[in-house]
Structure prediction request, 685 residues.
Amino acid sequence: MKEDYKQIYYSLSDTQIKYFDEKNIKKLSNLGINSLYDLFYYFPRAYDDRTNIMKINELRGDEYVVLKASLMKIVAPPTYSRVKMVKATATDGTGIIEIVWFQMPYLRKTLKLGEEYIFIGQVKRGYVFQMVNPEFKLSSNQKKLDEGEILPIYSTSKDLPQNSFRKLMKEALKLKNSLFVENIPENILKKYRIVGREKALKDIHFPKNSKDIEEAKRRFAIEELLVLEMGILQKRFELESENKSKYILEDKKLLVKQYLESLSFSLTKAQKKVVTEIYKDLANGRIVNRLVQGDVGSGKTIVSMVLLLYMVENSYQGVLMAPTEILATQHYLSVKEKFAKLGVRVELLTGSFKGKTKEKLLADIKEGNIDIVIGTHALIEENVIFKKLGLIIIDEQHRFGVIQRKLLRDKGVLANLIVMSATPIPRSLALSIYGDLDVSVIDELPPGRKPIKTKWIASDDDREIMYDFIGKKLSQGRQAYFIAPLIEESEKLSAKSTEELYEEVSKKLLNYKIGVLHGKMKNSEKDEVMTRFKNKELDILVSTTVIEVGVDVPNASIIVINNAERFGLSALHQLRGRVGRGEHQSYCFLVSKTENATSKARLQIMEETQDGFKIAEEDLKLRKSGEIFGTKQSGFSDLKFTDIVHDIKTIKLVKEICVEYLKENNGKIENDYLLKDISEKFKEN
Prediction:
C-alpha cells in the first residue's frame, strides 16, 4: 500500500495544508474530525442550491431555503438580556418574512432599505415566517447565480461557520491524487457503473449539479455497505475455513433421539426446520452465527437443548447463558433429570455460587467433566475456563451487549453462537440484514396455544371495566400480573411504584392474595415470591419489569402494564409473553393516557400484531437501527447513506457482491485500500 494513502488516517496536525493551524484543528476536533479521512467523509447534511430560489408564499416552515427579498424595515429592538438584536422585515411580493440577527449590531447600519438581498438559512413558522442568522448578500453581487452555484451545508459549530468550513474542505481536496485512490475493486466499479472515489468525494462536497450529488451518494452508500459487509463476511470465511480444517463433527445424534422420545410432545415443523438448518451449517464446517426468533412459547428452549446435546455427543461442551438467575435456574431444573438419565452432566453457574462449591464447579468445567453449563453473567468471568467449548447459546439476547457475547465466545475452541429472542431488537434486525447473523424463524406455536388478546386502556371508564373483567377471571381460578411503571436506575423509586400499584389493586380486587416483586428485594426473596405465585398461593403478582423474562406460570392468563407509554416495543412484547403459556385464553391490558404520537403508535402496533418480526420492524422505524459497531441497542445508525428499512434492495445487492467477490478470491480482499478502510472500521471491535 502506498504510504500516501495511510496519511489520510494520520492526525490533522501531521498535515501541511493551508489554513490548518492549531486553532482550526482544535475546532475540527470538537466536531469529531481528527484526520483527513474524518474530514473527507464529513459529508454535507444539505445543500444550498442558489439556482433554486423559493417564493415566500411557497414556504412550509422548518426547511432550509434560498430567498430573494427586499428590505422593508430595519430595527434594533431592546431585549431583556445583554444579547443585541437586529430585526428586519422583507418581502418578495408574494409574502412577508421576518429576519433576525443576534450579536451583530453593525448590521443596523450595513443593511439598506429597499435593496434586494439573497437570504440563505433555516425558516421557522410562527405568527409570521422567520429566519435567524441567515447568510446573505446583495442580489446584484450574486455573480454566479445564472451559472449555477450549489454550496454544501455542514453540521458545524458557532466558532467554525459554514464559509470557514468550506474553505478548509476546499484546501484539503486540493491534495495530491494518491490520497484518493480507489478502494472499490475495479471490476465491481465497472459492472455496477459506480462513480470513482476521487470524483465522488469532490462532487459530494462541491457539486456542479444535482446529478453529481445523486451519483456521489449512490457511490458512498455502496462503499459504506461494502466496507461493513466485507469486514463481516471475510471474518466468517476465515472462521469457516479454519473450522473445516481443524474441527470435524462426527455427526452423532443418538442422545438427541433419546431426548426427543422422552418428551410428551413432538417438535413442531418450525422447530424441526430450525434444527435442520443448524445441523446443516455444522455438518458443512460453517461457523454458526444465528439468530433464532420465535414468540414466547414457540419452543426456542427445546431447540437449544437439542443442539447442546448434539454438540455433547460430538465431544464438545455447551453453554446456555440467560439474563437472570431465575431464568437460568428454570432452564437448569427443566433438563437436569432428563439429561442425567442420558448420562449428560449439566450444572448451574450464577453469581450466587461462592467458596469451595464454586471452586469445584470451575475445576470440573476446566477438566471437561461437565458437559453443559447453564448460567448468567457469571459465565463470562475470567476464571471460567472450558476444556472444549463448541457451542454458545444466549437466551433473550437483547439483554446482552456485544462485549459480553464476545467475552463468552472467546472461551470456545469453536465460535458457534446462537442467540435467541422473542423480539429481535432493532440492532439485531439490522445485523441480520447485513449478514452478521443468519436468521431462523420459529413461526409456529405448539398445538393448543391461543393468541393473546391485547387492549389499550386509555380512559378511567375503560380502567374500571378492565378491573371488573379481571375480577371475574380471578374468580374462575386464573392469576394476573400487574406491572408497575418503568423507572430507570432507581431501585427505591421502583419499589415505591410497586407499593402504590399494590394499594390500588388491593382496593379494586378485594379478597385476593397479592404478592409484590421489585428490584430492591434480595434474590432469595424474589425466588420465594415467584415460587408462591407459581404454586397458586398468590392470585396476583404486582411487579416491576424483573418478570420480563424468566417466568413460566401457565395459569397466569392476564397481564396489566401500567404507564405502557414508558416502555419500548421490545419490552412490551416481552412482558406480554408472560401470559399465553397455558390452555386458557390470555389477555394483555396496556394502560396509558399518553398523547405522544410515538407512544400511541407503539400501543396501536401492540394491539394489532403479535408477530415478533413485525414488531421489530416497527420498532426499527420508531427507534432507528443503533450503531452497527457499537454496544448501543438503539439510536442513530452509523451509516450515512443507507436506510435499513427502505434500502433493503441495495443492502442485499452489496451482500451478494461481497459473497461473490470473496468466493472468487478464496476469502481474500485483494484491494489494499479497501482492506485498510475495513481494518480501521473494525479495529475497536
Summary: Residues 491-496 have pLDDT under 50 and may be disordered. The chain has 23 helices and 21 strands.
